[in-house]
Amino acid sequence: MRFRLDDDQLALRAGVRELLGRCFGRERLRAAVDAPGRLDRALWRTLGAAGFFSLRLPEADGGAGGGLPEAVLVFEEAGRALLPGPLVATHLAADAVPGAAHGETVVTAVDGELVEWLDAADTVRGDARDAVPLRSVDPLTPLHRLPESRSPAPDPVAVLLTAAEQLGTAGRVCELAVGYARTREQFGRPIGAFQAVQHLCAELLVRAETARAAVYAAAVTADPADIAAARLLADEAAVRGARDCLQVHGGMGFTWEADVHLHLKRAWVRARRAGGSAWSEERLAAALAD
Amino acid sequence: MDLSYTPQEEEFRARLRAWLATALPGLPAKPPPDDWPARRAYDLGWQRMLYDAGYAGVHWDSSPVLRLIFLEETERAGAPYVGANFVGLLHAGPTIAAEGTAGQRARWLPPILRGEQVWCQGFSEPGAGSDLASLRTRAWRDGDCYVVTGSKIWTSHAEVADWCELLVRTDPDAPRHRGISWLALPMDAEGVTVRPLRTLAGPAEFAEVFLDEVRVPVAHRVGEENDGWRVTQVTLSFERGTAFAGEVVACRRVLAALARAARENGRWDDPVLRRALVRLEAEFRALWRLVQWNVSEAEASGGVPGAGGSVFKLRYSHARQELYDTAADVLGADALDLDRPWVPDRLSALAYTIAAGTSQIQRSIVAERILGLPRGR
Question: Interior CA angle at B257 toward B256 and B260, to 5°?
Fold first, then answer.
């Protein structure tokens, strides 16, 4: 039992973080916010070339032969960077839709009553008839609404990768809160010296680290009940974490310029994805009733 | 990331499991919670059985992973809790092993392992609880002895303890963290008075200890004079590290039993209660993974539990209280009956966010030592 990242996994995480920093840094992020609904095809192809979508395909099929733990690390980085696009749907279509694996085709999927990135996608999985656009709360995720839910029980892998993205947000908003608390001064000292702020930051870390242990373990066991538990904790760590981070930023946190709101809004969108909390709660209730 | 165990670790688990299956049925009945001499005899008897079977000191001798397996398997089998041996096995023992001289290790460690000595912890004082470094119990040097005067409080097992790991102020003029020393105090020394304290949970779980010119040989000091604060940090890192690992296994068993009870009495159909149970299931699954993560990190960094202990302790102490509050919702009116299972646990869980560093202190530790925020006020 050696439950920590091995050298290959550490290198993978560092490599993905470096790549995303280069091709989707803060300037690109804010440019994307200013051009809502437009999916950056060049970026999508870069992700495809880096193996983002083909990660779990066997090497014989042109993939990287990675497993769920590797996929979780990559999607955690995507969550940290607020990378836009139907990442999970395209990743899951890598072996089924031509061009998806290498970023040539953008694939989205009907997910309950919602579809992300419907207008930008080349292929839609599921029945998206009568989809009506809504004014998405997240400027980086265009959404359509269906008259009723039209998808079966979610794929546990979609649940896990969504949890991984939430974990990325949980870790990132903790860093943002701590960075701000160290430098922002009030009453003649950094606000991070005040216990009220310190304790908000501590809880941000505690929620993120607890979720991290659960998400990584679920990636190793691939057990649907473990995945459900990880999802519930990751949703909590992302949504509450982003709110607490916004609070630490004070008035700045309520502005459009600070990135905090983008994390919170994306966390809200992800929390509705792949069965939402209801599927995970029912799955876990079944395990508990066993 | 690997959650599987090595063949050696699995072999250890299988051997331990087989031994527990034969050893536990022969155990005498558990003594009542307020009969301290009987509890002492019971806990020491169990420790002696562990010693004879070769499992004593798994807590400090072996790898953190073997320690985790030991805690997991003993809890799963329903073996006795470490009980009155808690301080000796989890605090004083590891501290003496890490910081003591060869002579001190030879003198104190074997009796702890063989179940011959009970230790208690003389850290907190009436004026020095969370602010431990402000302790005022004084020790003057007089020849080969320290002369100790002061008082300690919240001292678990003091009435039946043979030894006390005692923090004293040996230099009142030094900065407060730098004038403290760590002493082994024999509880039968002249001038030691113990007064049990009744807790809200009913029986006396701990005591006040009064020290009136007690003579303690200088040879009983572990670590250098005035270096006791550093020695104490070693002790506390053990306390917050893996000490609670077995309890997480126990909480998961309680949760499964609660779900069964709720299905039997119909409360499982209450969606609010079912949701509370489900959230706790997610919580305790995650806490077990956090234990495994922390243990793996500790093993990689040489065995001493790291700062992850504070993260775990914070989350676990609140989850434990939540667990027994939810148990009360499953029990309904029976939650007011002290003879019902889980009701006494609900009371004792109230100590968890206070003992071993309050949640407020833990949050400050996380903020300042892990996140690197400026020192608080």
Answer: 90
User: Of the listed B205, B239, B281, B322, which one is catalytic?
Assistant: B239
Q: Is B296 on the interface with A (CB under 8 A)?
A: yes
Q: What is the ipTM of this complex?
A: 0.96
Interfacial A residues in 219-278 facing B (CB < 8 Å)? 219-221, 225-226, 228-230, 232-233
Q: Which residues, including other chains, have CB under 8 Å from residue B256's CB and lie 6 or more apart?
A: A288
A190·B9 Cβ contact <8 A: no
| Residues in chain A within 8 Å Cβ distance of B374 | 182, 189-190, 192-193
Please give the Cα distance from B286 to B306 (Å, whole number).
18
Residue B308 in contact with partner chain A when CB distance is under 8 A: yes
Tell me which DSSP letter residue B368 carries: I
Q: Are A253 and A260 in contact (CB under 8 A)?
A: yes
CA-nearest of B10, B34, B25 to B201 is: B34
What DSSP string describes A143-171? Answer: EEE-SS----SPPHHHHHHHHHHHHHHHH
Report the C-alpha dihedral over residues B172, B177, B179, B180, rounded to 10 degrees.
110
Residue of A6, A197, A279, A284 to mutate when probing chain B, most B C-beta within 10 A: A284
Label the pairing between strands B163-169 and B204-217.
Answer: unpaired
What phi, psi does A32 have (nearest 5°)?
-65, -35
Contacts for B277 with CB less than 8 Å, ≥ 6 apart? A285, A288, B255, B258, B259, B262, B326, B330
Distance CA B267, CA B167 (A): 50
Q: Note whether B268 contacts A: Cβ–Cβ < 8 A.
A: yes
Asked if the C-beta of A187 comes within 8 angstroms of chain B's C-beta atoms, the answer is no
pTM of the model: 0.94
Burial class (CB in 10 A: 0-12, 13-18, 19+), B298: buried
C-alpha pair distances (Å), A195 with each of A185, A199, B363, B367: 14, 6, 9, 9
Residue given tokens 């169990």 in the structure block: B46
Give yes or no for B269 touching A (CB within 8 A). Answer: no
Cα–Cα distances (Å) from B37 to B44, B80, B93, B114, B118, in that order, read 11, 16, 22, 18, 11
Q: Can you tell me the distance from the alpha carbon of B216 to that of B214, in angstroms, rounded to the nearest whole number?
A: 6
Per-residue tens of pLDDT for chain A, all 290 residues: 899 999 999 999 999 999 999 999 999 999 999 998 899 999 999 999 999 999 999 998 888 899 999 999 999 999 999 999 999 999 999 999 999 999 999 999 999 999 999 999 999 999 999 999 999 999 999 999 999 998 888 999 999 999 999 999 999 999 999 999 999 999 999 999 999 999 999 999 999 999 999 999 999 999 999 999 999 999 999 999 999 999 999 999 999 999 999 999 999 999 999 999 999 999 999 999 87
- Cβ–Cβ of B268/A216 closer than 8 Å? no
Cα separation of B183 and A25, whole Å?
A: 56
